[in-house]
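## retry 2 of 3
previous attempt timed out at serialization; input unchanged, resubmitting
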Amino acid sequence: MLGAAVIAALACGSAAQAAGPYDRDRSDRVGATVSFVAFPVTSKGKTIWTAGELRIPTQPAGAAKGPAVLIVHGSGGVDSRGGSYANALNAAGIATLEIDLWSVRGVMSPGDRPRAVADTLPDAFAALGYLAARREIDPKRIGVMGFSWGGVVSMLSATKAANAALNTSGASFAAHAPLYPVCWAYNHAPGYGFGDLTGAPVLLQSGQADRYDDPDSCAKLHASLSDADKRLVEVKSYPNATHAWDRREPDMVANDPTSHKGAGGPVPFHYDPAVTKTSTEAVVAFFRKTLAAKP
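## retry succeeded, writing output
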């Protein structure tokens, strides 16, 4: 049998080896309860079950209902971006639900995607209803954010028209935070109407090296809005940031027929850690402010 001194030495050695990435607090699930959930989505006479990862920050027993943010992925599906922002929001005491639009639709390649982003708006509004019904969530303090395709969902869900046509949840999003949501298309391409907003604030973040747009496309969109809508929308634009600057997978070049203001062509995705830090902090600060409990 091993002596006490040997056992102690082995324990110390094991602890030393476990340092770094194996530290107890390095898990992205520390401090949050994680559940994999699904909810029904009805669209065009059909019902599907959209799934997602729900993360509820740990709260003391009897704590008041808290805020939540719906996270909607880009056209490539769930990737590193959603989890990164979810961790930051959870650390700020904000629950998150990151949904997967593609699995239930059998999307395996770009050609399998729905023909229009608006076809996935029912998923966002159904997710809103699901969150609003959770006993841990304050139904008046739910926001939405997304990347590219999900950014468009975040934009369109801020309009009265989309809510009147598709939102049957009985709740409303309290704030919207789209990232690089293809600004050139709004009020130009069919199905991309943006205006007559619900009254919820919008934080729009874009990159000036995004080849879907011109460097000033988002600024021009903001300038084109009515005075009432203009006051609701804040635009943050980052020099030299490409589309998907916060995507941590290997850099790539995508070819998309909707890029270059609809002319099509190559689009670089280049990860920028400095801009990612800034945009993540901006999202957290925005939702902390807009989803704060009312006195």
